[in-house]
């Protein structure tokens, strides 16, 4: 378009503008280029010609703040025909030049351009120039308000975030209470600061707002200088961190922290409203099998879907949480909460038991639920959780896929078990567990050829206790390893003592499953042999069938290491598990002990025992029958080639001294 038509709105002509000594140029804000400049304007920009200046792409070295400021000018030109006089620093050919420039809008072909008139050059000290530039480029929102809360000045960052044109100080805040607090702080101390939600062009944001009383440099009137920093991202990060601290990452349900921060107030309010409250502990039965067989990814997927099923069953006054692993918690309140918990628990059991498809398989797991009802009007969350946990374990003991309510008897039993655990631990430290020895008799000769070492507890108050009273507790509480070690040490020492007296006796010792899978077992046995002087070939370690079911490389490695030490290996209680003699051939075994239950059933069901004895003869394994109590049983075993027996027909387990007396 000819420049004369562009400038016709001024009523002048091109020659007159060209003759002006003041630098004048027209800037195309949209394209970031100079549209036209007079000769003085070319000199300001250090351009040899208008064409050369028009070819410059000003966007290449234009900061975001300057581009933002120019866009704001353009909006003001469009909206209100504004005119500005400001100090600007230009960078012609990379050299700074400070000018006082008057800006106004000019429309060309329907687009708004900017007419720029440089009124004079300015020389300011470096600190002033840099402070002006900093105010222009900073992302901090700076606003100067007059005494009535109207904006006297906004820096580009502040102008960019104004939600509504003409917005005052008070309207800037989402909550009027924040404005009141800030204003009162300034009135009292001259300055104030707070975190507040404010209205911006991008919607509601969190800002750190600082306000300080001052005077307007133009009018001398009281004013307020306000600076704001957007901390919305920080607030979101804090909210996310808080969520993660109080919620389970996998299911999104509240975790143990969330129970106290989110769910506990819900129960407390229910009690204040006159309702009853209850907790339900939910534990998935045999969930470990899913992880072991399908992997943890499938296990996680099952937990997510189970959590979804659980939440889908809950009503308005029922909240769910995940305690960890495969344990969930439900809080509920109702006028008759026990009845409601019973009904909800049955629905949960039914819903969770429905199989789900994982890795192309239909996987089903049941659940065990324990319920604790708050008694009275005082809420003790820790006690209720402990009671619900006890009831849940009672449901597991009752056969799983069941629901049980807490009763005082459960707590009494738990306290008794805890006392027994402590007593066992003390007994192990004090050496109260001793080995008793049940004779092993050669069937052909009737001579005692060995003994099985069996644990007994010589309790200082309760007398001699049998294994059934302490072995299960030791297994549950991780003390069976130490118990097994102590009995093994005593058995090895006793074998050495008997040998020193000229008795050629084999001693067998039971190993628990946890002992056998311990990688340090061969080293422990080797050390015990060295310390005791026991003959390795006169020490037999008994393992159960369940230990062999995995038939993996670690099992084979452990058995071979024990056999390499010279020890004998026996399978104890054979026939009660799921093993078969076909795969037993691959293991370096020396003996097989026929379980006492088969011996007791010889009169009614001899077939299985007949099969066991036949296969043992074929495999060349030494047979030891347990629990022999009658001469008829002994005769039957003798006819089938069984080599040894033990049982009450000969003797119960005896102390080492009694055993020696039995021999002589």
Automatic annotation (TrEMBL):
<dbReference type="InterPro" id="IPR000160">
    <property type="entry name" value="GGDEF_dom"/>
</dbReference>
<feature type="domain" description="GGDEF">
    <location>
        <begin position="275"/>
        <end position="408"/>
    </location>
</feature>
<dbReference type="InterPro" id="IPR043128">
    <property type="entry name" value="Rev_trsase/Diguanyl_cyclase"/>
</dbReference>
<dbReference type="InterPro" id="IPR001633">
    <property type="entry name" value="EAL_dom"/>
</dbReference>
<dbReference type="InterPro" id="IPR035919">
    <property type="entry name" value="EAL_sf"/>
</dbReference>
<protein>
    <submittedName>
        <fullName>Diguanylate cyclase</fullName>
    </submittedName>
</protein>
<dbReference type="InterPro" id="IPR052155">
    <property type="entry name" value="Biofilm_reg_signaling"/>
</dbReference>
<dbReference type="InterPro" id="IPR029787">
    <property type="entry name" value="Nucleotide_cyclase"/>
</dbReference>
<feature type="domain" description="EAL">
    <location>
        <begin position="417"/>
        <end position="664"/>
    </location>
</feature>
<dbReference type="Pfam" id="PF00563">
    <property type="entry name" value="EAL"/>
</dbReference>
<dbReference type="Pfam" id="PF00990">
    <property type="entry name" value="GGDEF"/>
</dbReference>
